[in-house]
Amino acid sequence: MRWVVFLLLLLGGLYSLTAFAPATAGKAGMLWPFAADSKPIVGFVGGLPGQASSIVTTFLAGVAGVFFLAAVTGLFWKAIPTRMWPTLVIVAVATSMLLYVLYFGVWMLAPILADTILLWGVLSKRWTAETLPARALRDDSIRIHPFMNVPVPWVFVLTFLVGLGLHYLTPLTIQSAGIIFISRITGMVLTVGGALIAFSSLGIFRAARTTTVPFETPSKLITSGPYRFSRNPMYVGLTLIYLGVAGIQVQIWPVLLLPLLAIYIHRVVIPVEEARLRGVFGDAYEQYCARTRRWV
After folding, report:
1. pLDDT value at position 276?
2. Buried/exposed 104-122: b ≥16 CB within 10 Å, e otherwise
3. Burial letters 267-294, b for 16+ CB under 10 A, else e
4. Any idea what DSSP says for residue 135?
5. What phi and psi, each to the nearest 5 degrees, are found at residue 158?
6. Which residues have a Cβ under 8 Å from the Cβ of 21 and sit 6 or more positions away?
7. Distance between CA atoms of 152 and 269, rounded to whole angstroms?
8. What's the mean per-residue pLDDT of the chain?
9. What is the pTM of this model?
10. Which residues pair with 23 in a beta bridge?
11. Domain ranges across the chain
């Protein structure tokens, strides 16, 4: 359930901060509700940041964005006191909801829905910092990068969202109908193939009752199924899904960001996992590495 809350908070921050980087006129959408031609329903609001008398919009969008990001941080970092987490969410939701009401339109329905679900979860006390605990290392034998507190699947999601943001700011489009058709067909194939690889790999881990968290200590060395061909089939599957979704949506920016994501996984995440596995399984893991490549 923590990942549902994480996604809602992340979307909340994205929705509110798009006021500072609106899409081109007429291009507002479900993930980017503000466009350059967005107008408030009451005159005293002024307009979007950068326009005349925009202090109200700037204040609401800024406060909402900061508090949403602080609430996201509180899910993974114990430096945010647990008693403060509900307050962070409530302030973020209150300011963003007011912002969406002032700019109410069809594309504001998705942000309002996300805010409503968050507010319900917090006020009903179904979601609290205590029931959504931050993960911690079981020991301090291996130092981890701070970014590793964010689960790898969500790093893929975050990177893709950054790519979408860059697309709205600086669109890179393909005009050829033939290339668009090929991109979408290829994207569907990659998405289905990647999902099969990723979820079958996850299922093997679940059946073996060993951890999928990179910096936690595994209880069993998995070498069967997709792990016969790759030491990291989950990451291979996620990469294929990422490319597939980009292909279906004909998005160029997320593809351009993928090498940075791959470098992060290759140089930051995987070395920590491998150090854990070597420490636990020793020669058995070394023999596995000798016959199976890191990726494919």
Report:
1. 87
2. eeebbebbbebbebbbebb
3. eebbebbbebbeeeeeeebeebeeeeee
4. P
5. -60, -45
6. 165, 168, 169
7. 8
8. 85
9. 0.65
10. 35
11. 2-123, 146-291
